[in-house]
């Protein structure tokens, strides 16, 4: 058997013409170039068939193609815009990896059970679920929305490191606004600055991460305000935010038929 048959090129049913890059998106161009060198002449398998992907990979030869693809999709395959976005992410990544940032982020998000960002397990659609407990947002957090957004982005960076390069990172965020005892319980419509900062920061640095961001229950006045705010945000990110109505006064445990508990997740 030739190397191309082992990789499955003989049976590809993708609309796009198969290439080594499309078959192995979890490797960098640097690695793929070595693999491509082992192909036989009669294999006739191209390294790339997509010019934009080739251009982006050539610019960042040590970055996994799957990572670069997320930024290309976010910018409609404009290499210049995707590169600008990716360069911004690299700069932000330097910030979150500076000494002391982890401790600062943990303190910003809340300690222990007061942490507003909580991993919840795996959804039945395969996405990883994060809970964003809006009832725990304090006035201090509200007045420092950008710092909260940076800390939440740090959480996503840690998630990305745990996920690794061989699995596509995809998350569903559940954000209940119900009140709980001994919590700040700031009214939902006042939390717009936090939502705006989060959408801007996460959308700029972690494109194509979010499957859906569900905020519930959310009053109609807050939804009206959000319609105005989202005009100033990345449209692809803001389009993934949806609101559910409802009048439940207190918090209750989520229905476990809707997700796979963390202890049972792979």
From TrEMBL:
SUPFAM superfamilies: CRAL/TRIO domain, CRAL/TRIO N-terminal domain
Every CRAL-TRIO domain range: 120-266
Top-level division of the source organism's lineage: Eukaryota
Stored PANTHER family: CRAL-TRIO DOMAIN-CONTAINING PROTEIN YKL091C-RELATED
Protein's recorded name: CRAL-TRIO domain-containing protein
Species of the source: Lotharella globosa
């Amino acid at each position: 058997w030739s190397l191309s048959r082992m990789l499955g090129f003989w049976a590809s049913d993708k609309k796009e013409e198969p290439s080594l890059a499309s078959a192995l998106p979890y490797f960098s161009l640097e690695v793929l170039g070595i693999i491509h060198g082992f192909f036989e002449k009669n294999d006739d398998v191209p390294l790339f068939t997509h010019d934009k992907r080739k251009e982006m990979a050539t610019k960042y030869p040590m970055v996994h193609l799957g990572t670069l693809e997320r930024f290309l999709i976010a910018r409609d395959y404009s290499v210049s815009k995707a590169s600008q976005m990716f360069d911004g992410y690299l700069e932000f990544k330097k910030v979150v990896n500076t000494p002391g940032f982890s401790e600062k982020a943990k303190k910003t998000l809340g300690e222990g059970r007061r942490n507003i960002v909580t991993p919840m397990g795996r959804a039945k659609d395969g996405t990883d679920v994060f809970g964003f407990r809006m009832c725990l947002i304090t006035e201090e957090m509200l007045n420092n929305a950008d710092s909260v957004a940076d800390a939440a982005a740090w959480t996503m960076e840690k998630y990305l490191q745990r996920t690794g390069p061989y699995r596509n990172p995809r998350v569903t965020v559940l954000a209940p606004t119900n009140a709980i005892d001994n919590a700040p319980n700031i009214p939902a419509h006042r939390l717009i600055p936090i939502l705006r900062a989060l959408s801007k920061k996460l959308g700029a640095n972690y494109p194509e991460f979010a499957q859906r961001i569900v905020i519930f229950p959310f009053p109609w006045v807050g939804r009206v305000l959000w319609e105005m705010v989202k005009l100033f945000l990345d449209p692809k990110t803001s389009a993934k935010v949806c609101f559910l109505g409802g009048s439940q006064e207190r918090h209750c445990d989520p229905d476990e038929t809707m997700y796979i508990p963390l202890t049972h997740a792979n």
